[in-house]
Specification:
Belongs to the GatC family. This protein is mainly alpha-helical. It has helices spanning 7-20, 24-32, 41-50, 57-78, 109-113; strands spanning 2-3, 34-35, 119-120, 123-124. The chain has five helices and four strands, in the order βααβαααββ.
Length: 132
């Protein structure tokens, strides 16, 4: 069983594992080998330092607890039997919702400017907004 000691190397290695895997079975097999280690205040302090954040002791404790709950939930999800569940990218079966890219009739410049309160050389004229 693979055991990662610090939070960031663990995430980095999981991402690398994911990128190397081409199908769902491989991903499940590899992730099943990973033992999640709880996150310590030292890990939170390290990440806060990387992000140049100053955290209070209360925030450090709060984030450590929250991140450990997330990892515990991920561990619980790993125990689910997903053998007959097809991998999906979305919860709902969605199709491409974009319209077809085709030419169509647009307003002419004269039509667009027809209700403009002021125009100059084919452009909308607006008051300057400057302070000071």
């Amino acid at each position: 069983m693979v055991k990662f000691g610090h939070f960031w190397p663990r995430v980095s290695q999981l991402v690398s594992i994911y990128r190397l895997c081409y199908n769902q079975e491989m991903i499940s097999d590899v992730i099943a080998e990973v033992e999640y280690v709880s996150i310590t205040s030292k890990d939170v302090a390290h990440v806060a330092n990387l992000a140049r954040l100053k955290l209070t002791d209360q925030e450090m404790e709060q984030y450590t607890e929250q991140l450990n709950k997330i990892l515990q939930h991920a561990e619980e999800l790993q125990k689910l039997d997903l053998e007959n569940v097809e991998p999906t990218s979305h919860v709902l079966p969605i199709q491409n919702v974009m319209r077809d890219d085709r030419t169509r009739q647009w307003l002419t410049n004269e039509q667009a400017l027809s209700n403009a309160p002021d125009e100059d050389e084919g452009q909308f004229r607006v008051p300057a907004v400057m302070e000071g």
